[in-house]
């Protein structure tokens, strides 16, 4: 069921992620000098090579170190995170700006305590439209969310706002920005899931879903890999996908998903919130 490969995301990798599995990160060494590249046949040539290496090695190492430092900082910013510079002056203690649409660290309180007075179940009214092609999952999922408020531009209009191309929609931050733009209010925040799933993140997700749906705001999730719904049906998107959370039950332990790429048509399916959280590892959501 590889019907959508148009989603990227915070910290997302282009390789597939199998459900409940971690991918091993590896890279091919580049710029490696072959053992046959330099042949020294005489003491004179040996001295020449040594002199050349001694003269240029500090400059090469200095340049490489600077490139690596810049690369790490660039990747952190692209993922919506805030990273300290590789080299920081001792006197530079000024705070770094944080992206306005990224949720900050939650206070030291259990998020589940904040939903104790909320209904045990909630489903919003929405208009379920399927995506018309393999890369429109972002616009389609965003439109489903906006339809709950009665304001739903066309998928083409949303694709333009999101910057969607045939390669997909870059990240959940674009979804958040567009949702807030159409809403006319800064009500949605982007919540990155990171590389490791923790109980705190799962509790935060459950609370965010309950609060958002009780405010009549469906949640848009950026997922990758394979997960199973409560009927045991597999939903697989190795290249990434966007879908919309339109309901919950059992105080947020189970969610209802309106999937714009559902092969069964414009119908929803249920999934445990724990499985949904696993599905979003390395990605994030807008709530």
What does this 3D model show about the protein?
β4 (234-249) and β5 form a beta hairpin. This protein has a domain at 111-286: Cysteine proteinases (Cathepsin B, Chain A). The longest helix is centred in the first third of the chain and has 36 residues, at 43-78. α2 (137-147) packs across α3. The protein is of the alpha+beta class and 287 residues long. Strands 1, 2, 3, 4, 5, 6 and 7 form a seven-stranded antiparallel β-sheet that branches. The chain has six helices and seven strands, in the order αβαααβαββββαβ. The model is unreliable at 11-100 (pLDDT under 50). Helix content is 31%, strand content 15%.
Q: Can you tell me the CATH class of the domain at 111-286? A: Alpha Beta
Low-confidence stretches: 11-100
Broad structural category: alpha+beta
Number of helices: 6
User: For the record, what is the CATH homologous superfamily label of the domain at 111-286?
Assistant: Cysteine proteinases
Using DSSP, what is the number of strands? 7
The helix-strand sequence is: HEHHHEHEEEEHE
CATH architecture of the domain at 111-286: Alpha-Beta Complex
Helix coverage percent? 25-40%
Shape: globular
Beta-strand residue fraction: 15-25%
Oligomer: single chain
Distance between the first and last residues' Cα? 27 Å
Largest sheet: 7 strands, antiparallel
Summed over residues and divided by their number, the pLDDT gives a mean of 76
CATH topology group of the domain at 111-286 = Cathepsin B, Chain A
- Calculate Rg over CA atoms: 24 Å
Provide a short characterization of the protein structure.
The protein has 287 residues and is of the alpha+beta class. The protein has 6 helices and 7 strands, in the order αβαααβαββββαβ. Strands 1, 2, 3, 4, 5, 6 and 7 form a 7-stranded antiparallel sheet that branches.
């Amino acid at each position: 069921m590889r019907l959508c490969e148009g989603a990227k995301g915070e910290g997302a990798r282009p390789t597939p992620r199998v459900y409940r599995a971690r991918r091993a990160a590896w890279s091919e060494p580049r710029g490696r000098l072959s053992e046959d590249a330099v042949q020294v046949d005489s003491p004179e040539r040996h001295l020449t090579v040594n002199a050349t290496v001694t003269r240029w090695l500090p400059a090469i190492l200095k340049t490489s170190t600077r490139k690596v430092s810049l690369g790490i900082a660039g990747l952190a910013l692209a993922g919506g995170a805030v990273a300290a510079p590789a080299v920081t002056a001792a006197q530079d203690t000024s705070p770094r700006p944080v992206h306005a649409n990224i949720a900050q660290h939650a206070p030291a309180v259990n998020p589940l305590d904040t939903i104790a007075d909320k209904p045990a179940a909630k489903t919003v009214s929405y208009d379920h439209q399927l995506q018309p092609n393999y890369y429109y999952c972002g616009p389609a999922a965003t439109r489903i969310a906006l339809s709950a408020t009665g304001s739903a531009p066309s998928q083409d209009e949303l694709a333009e706002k999101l910057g969607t191309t045939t390669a997909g929609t870059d990240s959940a931050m674009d979804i958040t920005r567009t949702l807030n733009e159409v809403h006319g209010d800064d009500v949605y925040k982007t919540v990155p899931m990171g590389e490791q799933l923790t109980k705190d993140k799962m509790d935060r997700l459950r609370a965010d879903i309950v609060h958002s749906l009780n405010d009549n705001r469906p949640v848009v999730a950026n997922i990758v890999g394979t997960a199973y719904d409560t009927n045991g049906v597999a939903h697989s998107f190795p290249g990434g996908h966007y879908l919309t959370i339109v309901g919950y039950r059992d105080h947020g332990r189970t969610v209802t998903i309106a999937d714009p790429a559902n092969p069964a048509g414009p119908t929803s399916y249920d999934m445990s919130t724990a499985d949904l959280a696993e599905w979003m590892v390395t990605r994030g959501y807008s709530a």
